[in-house]
Sequence to fold (771 residues):
Amino acid sequence: MNGMKQKILTAGLFLLFFGSLAGLALHIFPEFQPTDGLSASSKISSRVGRYEKTAEILLGKVEIRGYKQMGSTPGLVRLSPDGARIVVGTEAGEVLLFDLQGGRIWSRKIGMGKISALEFSQDSRRIFVGENSQQGAVICIDAATGSERWRKASVDELGVDIRQKTFPGIMSITVDGVGNAYAVALRSIRFPNGKTEYFARIYKFDEQGVMTLFPRDHNLDVWVSWCDVDKNGTNLVFATSDYTPGPERKYKDNIYAFDAQTGVLRWSQALPTVAPYDRTNMRFGPEISEDGQYLGGVSADGRAFFLDADGKLLWARTLSAPQKIQGIYLNATGLHIRHVGEYVAFSTGNTYNRANWQLPTPVEHPQSNSIFLFDREGNLRKRRNLGGMVEELKVTGSQLIVAVGRNIRTKDAAVHGMVALSTPELDIVDSMPMEGPCVAVAANDAYIVGMEAPLQLDGGEVLGAYRIHVWKRIGL
Amino acid sequence: MYNRQVWEATPADTPVHRLDVRTKLALLAAIVIFAVGLEGPRPLFLLFLLSLGFHVVARSSVERWKILIIFLLVGIWGAMVSQALFYNQEPRTMIACLLSPTTPWIGELTGGIFVYREGLEHGAVQALRSGIMLACGLLICWTTDPRQLLQCFLHWKMPYPIAFMLITSLRFLPVIFEETAIVLTAQRLRGFEPLRTLSPIRWVRTAFYVLFPILARALRRAATLALSVESRGFGRCGHRAGMAAWPVVERFACLTVFTGITAGAVLKTLYSLQFNGIIYFPGLRGVYDFMAVWL
Fold:
């Protein structure tokens, strides 16, 4: 009897030890955690039932943010143009490739850099990763194997200051329809006197990784974080920002267009300013329409612009006018632009305090967290408030797919998730709720993939997790 | 029944037992340096598994595994729980609230008691470090005759009194545990159940009841030992037995490991220099990436 008791105690001890070891191993090596798609019995439907969740994949650890911190949890998700693969770039610097059932195909860490841009090539065979580090490199990865094909560091053009930690970074990557990829690299230095110096450059890579620079022989002296190119790879456009403008700047205009093949500057456009701002800053956009005939742009002061391909301003509209509350200007920043058939959609984000954008505002701007749909003549067709930050906006067919994140003012967690909107009505076609805020989305005609981030409530409770949700379209 | 042999080195024919004592000590030193120098949980966990693997190779008995597991479990959970509760670095994420800040008096006094995720992780890393050292240390104790250890220390020019004290303390460990068992048995025979209680006051009382007799017996034994070694001429220079030649293969293995440690130290220094913005070599980007991901 005593011997049996001893044996049971020994077995319990061993079980406890190996259980603890297994738990530790799973935590330390999250790649061994079961991440595959949902079982057939646990399929979840969207609110309206037009989509069905096929996979839910945990992405490992991430710093959990609360309502007191501005800025979203970093993370990028893209669907391959052939619709068969999902690539994810995590805050921990990991690139992961999944199939649509949630099965992991490969993963690789990019090293000490932070992933800042991610895009598939048009043929789905390469993945371009942009990183922010001492070298600010674009890394081309073979989508089939996960191996690195080539990498190009922007430090050669933009420089680096190791002591001050002013590193170059790839801000965005886009591709055209003829096999080229375009990356925007930026480095900025803020001096003690308040002045800021910018170094920006746009890189074009052909299928073999051969590089061309825009402009050819010098850096841009303004903030550039976005560019777009038409399908034929002929017209390259980008917008600029400058938070400490001065007469010494060479690139004073707001939108520039280059010939993407010859590198010649085709045109530039200076847009009017609006009080209380002394410059029109455009951090996102411009976005070229599918037919290459129109450009949409949005400014940080909350205005939308529509231009033709030759740079002629067709119209400008105010999305959210800056409002002076108790002596401080508040406004909802213009964020995204998407062309949907004959319409163009613009979005605004959370309300920001002009004096210190990192401080939450006492009130919400009435036009914040909204989608605005205009026709090409500049008529507002519809506006819809999403209730939370519009983190990303994608187009599939005639629908807009919106990633809805947190609202630091209302703190309403019920708005988190993805929403499919019809055009031009902006009616909710379906919504796919999440516990935590949705920080990124990718979509095609058959699938919607959203990235969820964990959110810490003021009481300490944590909502959601760092994971992606894959939804398959099952209805019209 | 208490088994004193569990604590003492026993001869066996395994690769670990066959290793030269100098090789064992050199590898122990290397593992300790690795455990202290490595920061990432991944390599630490792998090193921890390796140290457990050595026990498998040495065919440690179930009794010895039980002892090892008890020590490791206490270390792992103790470090994780304490760090989870008292972690004070940023960022830190609450994953559970044990005591709300709104609880009258004690909640206001403490500001609430929370379990922090980063604290759990930090505790796990610390526990892995101590676990690696414990597992390797016990492995040497269980597979190496203390006389060989003494010979090795003297061969490496360690002062005789220090080497003697070190080995004596090692040999006294099983004696201390045996005496603890004797004291507990004696108290149990007198009707005292020292371990069957959940009362903290009773635990403290038990500790005093057990510790004083052990201390008294240890002092008595130390005095006897001192007299014994003095009568044998302790500290006088005499003829010392030399050691057999260190096998070349084992010496080469140790040299390789220490070369690896030196290389690791150089890489870590390089990484720290770039991390602190002092110097960065673009050509070593691959090395920096490897350090960031794995080490």
